[in-house]
Amino acid sequence: MSVAHLIERVHHTALCVQDFDQMYDFLTGFLGFDTEGAKAERDAPELATVTGMTGAHILWALLRKGSHRIELFQYLAPAGKATPPAQSDTGFTHLAFSVSDVDAIHDAAVAAGHRPISAPQVMRGGVSRVFYLRGPEDIVVEFMEFADRRNA
Question: Domains in the chain, start-ordered, CATH in brackets?
């Protein structure tokens, strides 16, 4: 049985980190996300129930860039693993952004002290130019410039 007819839109992507302030600054300062839901500390009993994590206690914010939101978490309790997944691991591997000038983003990232994995690369026979960046906590962020803006 499908629930497709009940889904209206994607609301957000959740991102859990060990250093909330560092990632918040990266997302808002470098990537330009706006704060939609202000930073808050939460430990309500329903949070533990919804997450299935007894004693859940978090720092939280809801950030928005265009139509996409990132729900940013840091679990104060229970403690989580600090190792980010490799690109080949199951689950969340990276955030991706369609951009108007991938070279300018790459240059700005280097100037800001961020760590691109490579220079922009032509992908899929010229459909796009792409590079990955290691953000705070080695979370990977992808930037893609499409030759045909209709593909963005």
Answer: 1-82 (3.10.180.10), 84-152 (3.10.180.10)
